[in-house]
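Support request from a user on the community tier.

User writes: "When I paste my structure tokens into the form, the page sometimes reloads and wipes my input. The last time it worked, I copied everything first. Here is what I submitted, just in case something in the input itself triggers the reload:"
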């Protein structure tokens, strides 16, 4: 991985403010919908809004199609290790785990699943975390 350009990451432009507003609006709407429909909010959040918005911003900033393609492919592979959390967390909560204990355990499980995914894919020639 190349050196991270922190000066570019922490700079803030009016375009960044617009991105922040639109992205936050999606999250806000889903949480408002959750107040009356758990299932509809789950369906909406399961849609890849975050990735779609990120790719739209990447395209608007005239990033190369190859970079957008790499983002989409990386997103696919990184979604897989998060999936167990959506089954393990509800099981823990329904079996008496406190919210914070269950969240902490699920974060640890997800990190382990990420690591395992990276190792398995590296074995087959896909390197999600290049050195």
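"...and here is what came back when it finally went through:"
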């Amino acid at each position: 991985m190349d050196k991270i350009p922190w000066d570019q990451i922490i700079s803030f432009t009016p375009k960044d403010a617009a991105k922040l507003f639109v992205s936050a609006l999606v999250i806000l709407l889903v949480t408002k919908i959750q107040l009356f429909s758990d299932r509809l909010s789950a369906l909406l959040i399961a849609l890849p809004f975050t990735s779609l918005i990120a790719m739209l911003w990447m395209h608007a900033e005239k990033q190369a199609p190859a970079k957008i393609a790499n983002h989409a492919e990386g997103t696919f592979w990184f979604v897989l290790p998060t999936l167990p959390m959506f089954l393990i967390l509800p099981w823990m909560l329904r079996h008496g785990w406190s919210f914070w204990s269950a969240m902490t355990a699920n974060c640890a499980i997800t990190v382990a699943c990420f690591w395992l995914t990276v190792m398995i894919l590296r074995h087959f020639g896909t390197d999600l975390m290049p050195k």
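Agent notes: The reload is a front-end session timeout and is unrelated to the input. The first helix runs from residue 6 to 10. Residues 2 and 131 are 9 Å apart (CA to CA). Escalated to web team.
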